[in-house]
Amino acid sequence: MKSVLFATTALVATAGIASADIALSGSAEMGVVGGDVYGDETQFWTDIDVTFSMSGETDNGLSFTATVDLDENGAFAGTTQGGETIAISGGGATLTMGDTDGAFDAALTEVGIGGSIDDAHTAHVGYSGNSGFDGTYDGQVARFTYAFEGFTGHVSAEIDDTGNGDPVWGVGVSYSANLAGLSLGVGLGYQTTDGGTVTLGSSNGGGVPVVTAFDDVYGISLSTTFDNGLQAVVNYSQFSGDNVDDLTHTAIGLGYAMNALTIGFNYGVYEQDGDSVSGYGLAVDYDLGGGAQVQFGYGSSDLDDIGGPDSFDQYSLGISMSF
Question: Fewer CB within 10 Å, N- or C-terminus of the chain?
Answer without folding.
Answer: N
